[in-house]
Amino acid sequence: xxxxxxxxxxxxxxxxxxxxxxxxxxxxxxxxxxxxxxxxxxxxxxxxxxxxxxxxxxxxxxxxxxxxxxxxxxxxxxxxxxxxxxxxxxxxxxxxxxxxxxxxxxxxxxxxxxxxxxxxxxxxxxxxxxxxxxxxxxxxxxxxxxxxxxxxxxxxxxxxxxxxxxxxxxxxxxxxxxxxxxxxxxxxxxxxxxxxxxxxxxxxxxxxxxxxxxxxxxxxxxxxxxxxxxxxxxxxxxxxxxxxxxxxxxxxxxxxxxxxxxxxxxxxxxxxxxxxxxxxxxxxxxxxxxxxxxxxxxxxxxxxxxxxxxxxxxxxxxxxxxxxxxxxxxxxxxxxxxxxxxxxxxxxxxxxxxxxxxxxxxxxxxxxxxxxxxxxxxxxxxxx
Length: 384
Hints:
Mean pLDDT: 85
Largest sheet: 8 strands, mixed, barrel
Structural class: alpha+beta
Distance between the termini: 59 Å
Shape: flat
Order of helices and strands: EEHHHHHEEHEEEEHEEHEE
Helix content: 25-40%
Low-confidence stretches: 78-87, 175-186
Number of helices: 8
Strand content: 15-25%
């Protein structure tokens, strides 16, 4: 953009609007100067004070230039020398030492008892200094050790999860046993074939019931199930003790025959692993970009659309309140609709997604530290 010809008071201005504003400021500055006697120190000081307090408003940088010009006016123009307060020197008598000069005190200037006290105090302070230094070094070493162990555990967990993810897609050479039949009191259910991608994993751990995955999170894990809800709180896929635990299905849920609502639990790890990133759904913006959850059982693949996101807690048995973790099967349409209303009222935001009696639901649950026993919950329904 052309700036030639747009110079005012030594400043170049890029646009015509800035140039016009500068011209007006320059004229305004000249008017201000006429109101003060610039050869009078009091008037100059008064002008500087008014400029600093914003009495005069300017549109461009010329206002700041004007203030700086006035502040340096007396020095640069040598019209009003700055005031200096001269300190009177006290007369000194020739040959007489200045009594104001402090004499350096030596240890030898004190008596023997005082010297011992001083030396003891010095040694005491030196010991304290060394203790503090040692404590700082130990604390730093402990911090670095913790960070090293923490980083190692995270990298180990990631490598472990990646290994399982690779096994998930591996082809099995085992044709597997004949299709079993589950016998119930009133009916027999033929168990379908295990999906090819889960056969190897299932052969390694017969407690595998499925896999859960959410895009753009660490959530991409096998789902396990035992006869209790404690074992996989601190055991991994290989049955080894592991503080990260595993993702697992509630003991009372069933994938065959299918429960109305499958409740899946996982630790809320600070590293974000396991279900540590499930609470990203507290943001509706994140939900808008991640409305679907992939949850497969070992028998069939499934895609679920999120309906509700809410915070809850673990209640006392005697408390009469909706307990989401007890909603596993709906025995009637009335009961199902009642559950839907409860969760809809608790939801952090509306999704516009609803479910009808007969729909298959998935609930993901993890700890939430907003209150004692707090839980963060995401509920979705199967759409394919």
